[in-house]
Amino acid sequence: MDATMKSQTSCHRLTLLVKRILAFIVTSLVSLTLDLDGLRPEAHIMIQYQLRQVLPERKVDPSAALALLCSSAAAIVVWKWLVKRQIQKKMEKARRTQNEGLKKMAKAVQQFREQVPSVQTDAILSLPLLELAGRLQEGSLSPKTVLYTYLEKALEVTQQTNCLQHFIPECEEQLQEIQQQREKGLLYGIPISIKDHIGHKGHLSTCGLVQRLGTVVQEDSVLVKVLKRQGAIPFAMTNVPQSLFNYDCSNPVFGQTLNPFNHQKSPGGSSGGEGALIAGGGSILGIGSDIGGSIRLPSSFCGLCGLKPTAERLSLSGASGPVSGILAVPCALGPMARDVDSLALCMKALLCQEMFQLDPTVPPIPFNEEVYSSSAPLRVGYYDTDGYFPLPPCMRRAVRETRDALQAAGHQLVPFSPPGIHYVMTELFLKTFFADGGHAWLDVLRYLGFLKKGIQLLWHDPLLLSCLSTGDIVDPNLKSQVNCCKIPRLGKKLLALILKPLFPRLADYLSALGGTRSVKEMWNHHHQIEVYRTEFIAQWRKLQLDVVLCPVLGPAFTIGYPGKLLTAISSTMLYNVLNFPAGVVPVSTVTEADEEELKLYQGCCDDPWDQMLKQAVAGAVGLPVAVQCVALPWQEELCLRFMKEVETLSREKRAA
User: Fold this and answer.
1) On the CB side of 35, how many CA atoms lie within 13 Å of its CA?
2) How far apart are CA 288 and CA 577, in angstroms?
3) Is 31 tagged catalytic?
4) Bridge-partner residues for 582, per DSSP?
5) Residue 294 among the catalytic residues
6) Gap between the Cα atoms of 335 and 347, Å rounded
7) Catalytic: which of 250, 266, 270, 283?
8) Distance between CA atoms of 217 and 333, rounded to whole angstroms?
């Protein structure tokens, strides 16, 4: 009797499953065929409900149920094929749009060259931002000439590096508008590039994700509005890694961006498109974002100056991200350029009444020119390793040489040791982004977007979700991170336990990816970040430091390695957790001696990551080497002043 009841129960469950699948598939196929994406999720759920009512409720014998299930399986295969075809069409359309935009800009540049054949392109491109801005202000150069000069160069650079997602055709309208303004802003006539996810009206903000290809931004972000008010001309949006959570620069839609100095190397990320474009000479000023090093790492890899301000110093309004609501380690927008003075001019232009009015959450603190222009000696803390992920010999050499130069220039240098970086990386940084075990991040990579708004209906039926998922559309550079996140929480904990005696750093990484187990644990996690900030500042104050000199990850990694070495960003992620302003300045290049010394590199843990880092940076002779400069929160001007001092001393040394 019990066996009969169990059989009937199993048969009933099978019947229900088949009905739900069939109802869902019919709804989805109708939507795909008739392009009913505009229907609300409630409408799709109602259609499913009606279809389930139509399907018979009578008992189904096992053979009939099995036949029905096989038919459903075939329907699922067809459905998945249709969805994948839709995905492919979306990506192809995005690439066509990209190519058409490039051709349109190339045509506009050609027309300009025919009208004004005597433009001294090289002379304009060689001007530092301050000098270019001055000549535009006085009228000895026209904004039109400068814009088309940089458009032409940007076309050349993106053909070599694939750094642009698309040009902004409205730059020609902005060109007309600034010439009608009563007052010339600080960035009058300056062409500027912006990172993909910083909203510009009428354009995509994809974050490198397929499912965001249909999302057109309806309004300029606050930062773009202020840039335009200051006379700047946004002319291009640059490429990013898929989901932004990688320091390589590749996504399934627009492909891999290359380092302009070595096409085997990555430009860094996630502001890698900006890094490649500016380093290649196709832009004189760009805006990136940074949540773990995404401004500073491309700056290091590409030999640029980049500033990550205190997160709230510049407005984030209108800048989107793949996962919203992560506040414990905040994102910051900031400038990238060829020299420190350019960063200072950009910050001065942005920190104006226009920004404070458009976004009242931004503290109304104008740029302090007096601090930036000061020449008073500084008390500088320094370290060349954080003890968690020792960097290659050339990066440590850069810190030591910069320390000696600062000391010779009259500054006071004090050894400083940042506390508990291993703890910060695993317990504070990683657990912030993977608090849910990585599920939210995996969800943004998973394409379930056969319906634009109807996607929510899947969450009403978890069983269907498991049966009908089309799988992940994952860039190869993210595979390693994705595979680690996919391991069930218990599996991560067991693996961590097994690996702990042999590879403690790997074990703690896996354990951290397990996330937090409760709201109480998350609250405590946030509290621990506050405690760490307090302790760090206390140590800073005890040594009476003005600023800190420290290493930054580099030189440029070979393409494909950043995704395998997420925790190598310990040198930059620290100052995201602390929310301190931090900037990068190039001071040297990799030498043959550095390459020979790299062969002796041992790391600190004798685990696979140490060997992988060695492989990632090999073959970098001639590539840029940088250092990182840090100040306390809200002291961007002091940070920039310190960066300027480092830049001046390094240039004097190279000129000697």
Assistant:
1) 1
2) 18
3) no
4) 308, 630
5) yes
6) 8
7) 270
8) 18
Which helix or strand (DSSP H or E) is residue 286 part of? strand 285-290
Among 418, 646, 636, which Cα is nearest to 536's? 418
Residue at token pair 């109802």: 23
Q: What pLDDT, on the 0 to 100 scale, is given for residue 119?
A: 92
Of 68-82, 193-207, 225-239, 357-371, the one with minimum mean pLDDT is: 68-82
β-sheet with 332-337: strand ranges across = 164-167, 233-238, 191-195, 285-290, 332-337, 305-308, 582-589, 624-630, 547-551, 379-382, 412-415
CB 468 within 8 A of CB 553: no
Angle (nearest 5°) at CA 307 between 304 and 313? 160
Phi, psi of 258 (to 5 degrees): -105, 155
Is residue 71 annotated as a catalytic residue, yes or no? Answer: no
Stretch 139-155: mean pLDDT, rounded?
A: 97
Give dist(CA 222, CA 317) in Å, integer: 6
Paired tokens of 525: 């996690």
pLDDT digits (tens, 9 = 90+) for 261-281: 999 999 999 999 999 999 999
Q: Residue 292: enclosing H or E segment and its boundaries?
A: none
The tokens of 439 are what? 């599920």
Q: Which of 444, 446, 484 is nearest to 465 (CA)?
A: 446
Tokens for 33, please give them.
């065929």
Set 193, 243, 294, 588: catalytic member: 294
The active-site residue out of 195, 228, 308, 492 is: 195
Q: How far apart are CA 137 and CA 184, in angstroms?
A: 7
Across 368-395, b (16+ Cβ under 10 Å) vs e yields beebbeeeeebebbbbbbbebbbbbbbb
DSSP for 160-205 reads HH--EEEE-TTHHHHHHHHTT-SS--TTTT-EEEEETTB--TTSB-
Supply the pLDDT for residue 6: 53
Tell me the residue type at 362: V
For residue 147, give both structure tokens.
């814009």
Stated pTM of the model: 0.90
Q: How far apart are CA 644 and CA 549, in angstroms?
A: 13
> For residue range 439-496, what is the model confidence (pLDDT) as tens digits?
999 988 876 544 443 444 444 444 444 444 445 589 999 999 999 999 999 999 999 9
